[in-house]
Amino acid sequence: MTGKRLRTGAVLTAATLAACGLALAPAAAVTPDTATINADCGIFGGGAATLTATQDGTAATLTLTADAITAPLALGEDSITSSLTRVGGTGGSTAFTGTENPAMAAGGPVTVGPLSGTVAPGDSPEAYGGELRMTVFGIAITCTATAPQAPGPFVFD
User: Fold this and answer.
1) How far lies 16's CA from each of 11, 21, 23, in Å?
2) b/e per residue 116-132 (b: at least 16 CB within 10 A)
3) Which residues form the signal peptide (predicted)?
4) Contact at 8 Å (CB) between 80 and 112?
């Protein structure tokens, strides 16, 4: 009976220590957490846009905010279907997708995201060479980066 209690105690202690180690482990970090791009969205505008990145393990999000890219009509919250494709240094691509956006006035600046994607440690996808596709009321809008993002690609832990 004593041996059984010792084994049970040892298993519980090991499980508790493992759980504490996971809880105290540092969160994954993306560097840098913000970058700028210059985007061309055709008749919907173009100019500087800010990308903000977050990471939690292999899950990552990107949010794009652009004063120079304008909403064609007044848009309700979560009414834009978006896909931001980014090109990796090895030629592969990563898609960040979602339907999250704040409400926007006609002619107002566009914000989409957070858009969700999956990353691996060391991934460093770049906006230049990729594209942002937004679907608004069935109308497809495609934006492309006209130069590499600054200060450089995001690097995920």
Assistant:
1) 9, 9, 10
2) ebebeeebbbbbeebbb
3) 1-25
4) yes
